[in-house]
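Dear support,

We are seeing what looks like truncated structure output for some complexes. This example has two components. We would appreciate it if you could run it in full and send us the complete token output so we can diff it against ours.
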Amino acid sequence: MMDLQQFLFLAIAAFTGLSAVAVLVSQNIVRSAVWLLFTLAGTAGVFFLLGADFVAATQLIIYVGGILVLVVFGVMLTAQGPFVTMKVGAAEWVVASVVGVLLLGAIVITALRGPWTDDAAPQMEDPERSASSAELGMSFLGVSQVTPPAKLRGIGLHHPFLLEKTEQGTKPASAPERKQMAYLLPFEIVSVHLLVVLIGAAYLARAKRRRGVVT
Amino acid sequence: VTIGLDSYLLLGAVLFVCGALCMAMKRNAIGVLMGVELVLNGANINFVAFARYNRAFQIEGQAFALFVIVMAAAEAAVALAIVLNFYNNHLTVDVDTAEELKG
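Here is the complete output from our reference environment:
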């Protein structure tokens, strides 16, 4: 008997994965755009399942509301007759299937190997396990005090990257140093970057006279 | 079945592979762009899943996912501007015809 958590994950994961496959296999670019819409919405559902409310809402607003509108406008502006369906040869499908299965196998084998989590059985019901949007906002303000010290087994506290120099030698970085990691500077950089990029995009896509057309 | 970190990693892997193949196979430049979005979404699922299942990445996973979303918005804007420019100059969106820089 499945509980609600498992049922929701299986439903949303199947929806998202099948939509992603449909984006790949559909030959019509307009249909690909619609399947991409379903994939992005399903990804937002996965984020909600993981307890990342703010990221899921951002995904819905920016991806589904913004990027997809951009893509659909691009499709509408360029979908002229032969460009709506561009056929791909059968040989390319065979090669792509082989490469895709190999790539998927490599990633899955790597993902299933090794302990990625810090404890054996994480409790999905524990609301403490996912950061609230308030904590996320504080980390963007550079005052993050909520990240617990690292217990990552993959790297380990004895990795040289995490060691600090003392007179006696090196010892694992203590908790206060690990807690100082916050994201004020990256946040500012990314906001200025977004401004620059949008100005650049407006400059690139401005209305120009077509080459060779005399008016 | 138990839903753990591995399940989310598998879903992310499926999205990543679909996106990579989409980038490689689509002849429409906007289809290639859709493949990029799929790849970024697969990576984002991994980030948020690690934020949930690994206490050390509780904040970091979600913060990086937000950065990825913003970067994807910037990338989509610039890429679509380039595609529209290419379409204005060449009257096609077939990436196979974009070979002027070939050596």
